[in-house]
Amino acid sequence: MEPFTYIPKNETSERAIFANQACQLLFDKHLGDLEKVIADIKPVYDNFQTFVRNIYELIDREIPLFALYELRELGAGNCSLDETQYNAAISRTTTACAEYYGQEYKNPINTVPDKDGNIDVPDELMPLFNSLGTRLRMHTISGRSEILTIAAMVNDSHKFFTDKTIRLKPSNS
């Protein structure tokens, strides 16, 4: 098997399952932003290298996040790969990270405002943001108490998420 070619996640060993669970936590923490995950993974990687027997045997076949860390840290020369092989390994490993840890974070919400002060808001949250915006505008126009406005906004948010939760619960029929 070519190095940095990954077996299906459901066929990995117990040690790899354990490592991938830790990797999943970091992946979720950073909403799938691999650059942030790689920057944060060193202590986890080091602990697995120290405390999990022969984990190095599994990295380039069963633990893609550790492999991506190694590839980035060591570079092509230290991985005994030429530039073409190295780029192919990075590509396969990045794809494996998406397959192992989830693709739902591929386009996380952009929370950094653009030059006009706008952020990306998922469509399913737009009704809530519209309601909150309306409450703020009404507060500005009416001169209503800030406390009452905040209480109304909290109530709107609670109602929005309660309704969403009720709709998401599976029916018993």
Describe how the helices and strands are arranged.
Elements: H1 14-29, H2 34-40, H3 42-51, H4 59-62, H5 64-78, H6 83-101, H7 126-142, H8 146-168
Helix pairs in contact: 5-6, 7-8
Describe the structure.
The chain is mostly helical. Helix content is 64%, strand content 0%. It has 8 helices and no strands. The chain has helices spanning 14-29, 34-40, 42-51, 59-62, 64-78, 83-101, 126-142, 146-168. Helix 5 (64-78) runs antiparallel to helix 6. The radius of gyration is 23 Å and the shape is elongated. It starts with 13 loop residues before the first helix and ends in a 5-residue tail after the last helix. 19% of the residues are buried.
Q: What do the pLDDT scores average to?
A: 84
Compute the number of helices: 8
**Topology as H/E string?**
HHHHHHHH
Shape: elongated
Largest sheet: none
Question: Which stretches are poorly predicted, pLDDT < 50 over at least 5 residues?
Answer: none
Distance between the termini: 48 Å
How many distinct beta strands?
0
Strand proportion: under 5%
Work out the helicity level.
Answer: 55-70%
Question: Would you tell me the structural class of the helices and strands?
Answer: mainly alpha
Q: Specify Rg, calculated over alpha carbons.
A: 23 Å
